[in-house]
Write the structure tokens for this entry.
Amino acid sequence: MTVTAMQDGKIVLKKEDRKYYTAEKDPEILEFGEASYITLEGKGEPGGELFQSHINVLFTLAYQLKNAYKAMGHDFSMSSLEALWWAKSGKITEEAPPEEWTWKVMIRVPDYVSPDEVQKARNKSMEKKGMPALQLVEHERMSEGKCAQILHVGPYEKEGETYGKLMKFISEEGLEINGLFHEIYLSDPSRTPPEKYRTIIRLPVK
């Protein structure tokens, strides 16, 4: 992806790749190419202490990285938090108890972000904040390809019905799940009431 969308001198991925950050309330099939992220994996209940701690660690590194690129004249706007979900027991995520859930929290970054700059940002963040988990943050490129997706509006704990609608659609289309449960959190929980949360639910299919 060639990054060209700018706002106030910053790269804005949400404008450059609108398709990635847009979904409808009815299920649909779309194709998605490769993208770059910083990620941090953990295990346990969503919204639990470790989950929240890892989000804090990830954003700490993301802002350090953003400031480094701003100083180089390549500033970018912060992207939405995302997460991949699975259960290592092999069960579908919704059927496994929350303590068995494994997740990877992610923040998308521009393609020009380099592994060297991620390492420099990690080192600076360690000096300022400590946070041993910073050492576990990865810089990854991922491509999901063909996906089924849907927009969930409302509290996270009420996503079950929306997931059910998406799974029914996948079955009716004669498709199979071909990857991990992927959520993109478009709303800021500190500024948005739960009934207005907007979450993209995306599943690779074949």
Observations:
- The longest helix spans residues 49-71.
- The mean pLDDT is 92.
- The chain has one domain: 6-204.
